[in-house]
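re: ur question from yesterday

yeah so i grabbed the chain u mentioned. its 113 aa long if i counted rite. heres the sequnce exactly as i have it in my notes:
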Amino acid sequence: MDAEWLTKAIENNKNLDFVKRMIHPGDYPVINNPDGSVSTHKMSYASKGDKFIVYPTIVNKDGELIEMSSQDAMNYAVKNKQYIEFDDENKAEMFSLGAWKNMDNMKSFIDKL
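ran it thru and got these structure tokens back, copy pasting raw so excuse formatting
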């Protein structure tokens, strides 16, 4: 998989709260899922004008993670500028589904951030 667009998206947005949680999940609170697993973030994507945005559906409100509906999360993300913008819908969808988790060099990339 060509990882350049993934690394660029993460690098250019490493200041966003949900990207920080992607990079360093152990530094943040978690949501306990019904299956016993935990989540620090979940994402979705939508169109915004002629672009596509990826945004978290788990948001950090006052130090507590809260899971929101996709629509509420999108409104929150736009209001708080907590999204990543893409020109390509396929890339937005892939990113929202966790394509960055499958990057061969993700660990070494994250260690540099």
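noticed a couple things. The first helix runs from residue 4 to 12. also The mean pLDDT is 87.
anyway ttyl
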